[in-house]
Write a structure and sequence with these properties.
This protein is mainly alpha-helical and 123 residues long. Helix content is 75%, strand content 0%. The chain starts with 12 loop residues before the first helix and ends with a helix. The relative contact order is 0.15.
Length: 123
Amino acid sequence: MSMQPTDIVEVTEINVEKKIKAFSDLIDKIDSIDDKRRALWREIYEHAITDRQNAYAMFVKLVKIMENKSTEFAVHARSASSFIERMEKANDQLLKLADLISAAETKAGAIDPEDMFSRIQKK
């Protein structure tokens, strides 16, 4: 089953804002984190989510341009690949951040580390 351009879910600014708020709420509950680290983690999270959203938006545009057009695919495939790589890098940043937060929470005894990703992705 291949994905069609019409199957691609649009990422909205509101969804990103909700994710950032949920993330802020999550790290605000960890008492063992100092304010500087909390601010840095918020910034890292916001930048990674924004980078991923922007790369995804551009990827969606290219998929629509390339749809069933081999010439367009030949021209834009490398760019589409670079947007996928950008999304992957943003995901890696988020995973590293989740590891840091998990360690801080484990230290504080606040949350089960396995529950971390579902809490960050809460809408």
